[in-house]
């Protein structure tokens, strides 16, 4: 992991004007006006490679942007086209456990909004809690359990700028139902029915993986998968009015049994990402293509 400077750590949030300056800086250097923003989960950075006519920015060169510190998150913002549709893709996301503030790890969502993005497609690697899930399943998120948020760590804590959104945003419609339906249709057409699921994602702070008792608790509470990301981005994306689609690649089975010899580890997470890379790319591409054919979707 790269060491963070004291100044990088200290900064908590950015103003509307600072976010706008970052978005304008990016827009000045590309002719593309992306309507779709994609976030690559751990080991899923290959999704960014499917873009054509790419303009690539390293996070370290983007004003106000944090830096990626996690293996499997390259740290590049990639503009490009997917079947003619202008997209922007985060090849690497930020997590709470990297030491950034929750406002800072979600800054890219506000930059997406100011770039003109209308639909955000988030991906993540997650541990499967649902006993029916297998490693390699793709779970479309229909809802979440926001544990940091329930404990007061919500990215919208602090002064609210109405130019982004309202003080008290609704979250009962966080995951766009039409986009969930679209994923189901496209998944069937691609022959992915056997490994496409829908479920509830629970987010914890990490970076330690869960104990057996924690996994059992999450399962009892209705979670189908567990991870350390995505939900914070969803809250900020919804606050500023973007439509959200999210999926989890089940990279490992959460350990629920004291007799189990399984141990969660990041290497397995990255390996599973590689195994399903092609199907993930096909699903996202087909969905984006369908967005293009129906303006109601964006
Ligand atoms: O959620 P993404 O970024 O895919 O990463 C997941 O993979 C890492 C653990 O292996 C954690 O960061 C977890 O959140």
Description:
This protein has 298 residues and is an alpha/beta fold. The protein contains 10 helices and 9 strands. A 5-stranded mixed beta barrel has the order 5-8-7-6-9, surrounded by 4 helices. α7 (212-220) links the parallel β7 (196-203) and β8 (225-227). The longest helix is centred in the C-terminal third of the chain and has 17 residues, at 277-293. The termini are far apart. The model is unreliable at 293-298 (pLDDT under 50). 1-O-phosphono-alpha-D-ribofuranose binds at residues 41-42, 93, 95, 124-125, 206, 227-230, 266, 269.
Quick recap of the structure?
The protein has 298 residues and is an alpha/beta fold. 31% of the residues lie in helices and 22% in strands. The chain is built from ten helices and nine strands.
In the predicted model, the low-confidence regions spanning at least 5 consecutive residues are 293-298
Major beta sheet, specifics? 5 strands, mixed, barrel
SS-based class: alpha/beta
Beta-strand content bin: 15-25%
Shape: globular
Mean pLDDT equals 93
User: How many strand elements?
Assistant: 9
Report the total helices.
10
| End-to-end Cα distance | 37 Å
Please give the order of strands in the largest beta sheet: 5-8-7-6-9
Mind telling me the C-alpha Rg? 18 Å
Helix fraction? 25-40%
SSE ordering: HHEEEEHHEEHHEHEHEHH
């Amino acid at each position: 992991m790269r060491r963070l400077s004291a100044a990088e750590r200290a900064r908590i949030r950015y103003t509307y004007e600072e976010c706008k300056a970052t978005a304008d800086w990016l827009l000045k250097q590309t002719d593309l006006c992306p309507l779709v923003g994609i976030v690559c989960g751990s080991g899923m950075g290959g999704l960014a490679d499917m873009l054509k006519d790419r303009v690539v920015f390293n996070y370290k060169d983007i004003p106000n942007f944090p830096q990626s510190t996690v293996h499997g998150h390259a740290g590049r913002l990639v503009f490009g086209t997917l079947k003619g549709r202008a997209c922007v893709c985060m090849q690497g996301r930020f997590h709470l456990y990297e030491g950034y503030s929750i406002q800072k790890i979600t800054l890219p969502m506000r930059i997406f909004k100011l770039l003109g993005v209308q639909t955000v497609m988030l991906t993540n690697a997650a541990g499967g809690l649902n006993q029916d899930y297998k490693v390699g399943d793709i779970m479309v998120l229909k809802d979440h359990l926001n544990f940091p948020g329930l404990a007061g760590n919500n990215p919208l804590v602090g002064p609210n700028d109405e130019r982004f959104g309202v003080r008290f945003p609704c979250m009962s419609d966080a995951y766009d139902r039409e986009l969930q339906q679209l994923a189901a249709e496209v998944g069937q057409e691609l022959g992915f029915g056997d490994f496409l699921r829908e479920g509830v994602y629970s987010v914890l702070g990490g970076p330690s993986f869960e104990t057996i008792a924690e996994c059992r608790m999450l399962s009892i509470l209705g979670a189908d998968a567990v991870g350390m990301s995505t939900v914070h981005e969803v809250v900020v994306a919804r606050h500023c009015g973007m439509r959200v689609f999210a999926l989890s690649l089940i990279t490992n089975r959460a350990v629920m049994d004291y007799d189990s010899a399984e141990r969660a580890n990041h290497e397995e997470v990255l390996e599973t990402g590689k195994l399903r890379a092609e199907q993930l790319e096909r699903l996202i591409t087909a969905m984006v293509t369908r967005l293009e054919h129906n303006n109601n979707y964006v």
